[in-house]
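Input.
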Amino acid sequence: MTAPESNSRMGLPPRAGTVGRAVADAAGAVDTAVVDAAAAVAPGWPRRRSRCAFDVEPDGTVSAGAPGARPTPWAATVIATASGGVWDALEFDEGRCERMLALDLCQVCGRPRGEQVFVLAAQNRSRTAVLMYGGALCSLECARLTAAQCPHYTSKSPVEVFSMPRQERVDLLGGGYANDDEYRIDGVEPIARVHPVEAGRGGRR
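Output.
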C-alpha cells in the first residue's frame, strides 16, 4: 500500500547500509495459506496472504508471472470478485483509514506506531523528500515486508529503509492528501537495503 517516492517483533536493525536477511525475513513473515482478502485484512502479525488486484486479470485469473498471493495490508480496500475478495494496492478502506489517522496506526499491520518509524525509498531516487502514502511504518519487519513484496516497490531494486523519528503528517511535496506522510532523508543512512522478491515480474502495469 505504501506508494514509492515521488506511498511482531521489533528486532534490532542491521548495520547501516547492509542487506542482511531482509528478503528472507520478509518472505518468511507471512502465513503460507492463501485466504480471501476479507479475512486477511485483520490487524496483527504475521500478515496473511491473499490475492492482490494488481496481479489479477478481469476474468479472475492470476496474471502470467505474477505471484498467486501477497501479504495483505491491514488498511487495504477489499474488492469483491466472482472468485472471492482481492485487495486493492491503490486504495484504502475508508473506515480503517479513519482509524489509522485518528489512532496513529500502521497501515501494514494495524498496530500503533511508536516514536521511531520506518520509511522506504528507492536507492536510485532523485529526491531527498520521500512520500509514504498512508504513513511511515511501525516496525522494521513491516518495512522489509513492504519493500520486498508490495507491488509499488517490486519494480525498484534495491529499496532502502530509513529509521526516522515519528512526526506529524506534513505535505512537503504538494498534493494535499491527508494520508501523506513525507520525510526528508538528507544525510540519513539507511538501516537496510531490500531487493524486492518479485522485482520486474508479474502484475498488470
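The chain has a mean pLDDT of 77.
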